[in-house]
């Protein structure tokens, strides 16, 4: 399985959904980590949004 941004259940860019699918965890848990994390998670999210390719297939 390859890390890709999710098209299913996305809010902004699908980064959290893609990470949740890759690690087989709840997308809510991943979003909470990004939301309650320090300001550095904002920059990590932007970096991942630019680097992780979008999933071309609908699940």
TrEMBL record:
Subcellular location(s) per record: Cell membrane
Pfam families: PspC
InterPro entries according to UniProt: Phageshock_PspC_N (IPR007168), PspC (IPR052027)
Membrane spanning residue stretches: 28-48
Coiled-coil intervals: none
The Phage shock protein PspC N-terminal domain, residue ranges: 2-54
Organism domain of life: Bacteria
Cell membrane is among the record's keywords: yes
Bilayer topology term: Single-pass membrane protein
Keywords, comma-separated and alphabetical: Cell membrane, Membrane, Transmembrane, Transmembrane helix
Signal peptide, first to last residue: none
Matches recorded under PANTHER family: PHAGE SHOCK PROTEIN C (PTHR33885:SF3)
Protein name: PspC domain-containing protein
Natural source organism: Lactiplantibacillus plajomi
Species lineage: Bacteria, Bacillati, Bacillota, Bacilli, Lactobacillales
């Amino acid at each position: 399985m390859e890390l890709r941004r999710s098209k299913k259940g996305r809010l902004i860019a699908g980064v959290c959904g893609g990470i949740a699918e890759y690690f087989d965890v709840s997308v809510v848990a991943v979003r909470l980590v990004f939301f309650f994390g320090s300001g550095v998670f904002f920059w990590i999210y932007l970096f991942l949004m630019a680097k992780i390719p979008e999933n071309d297939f609908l699940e």
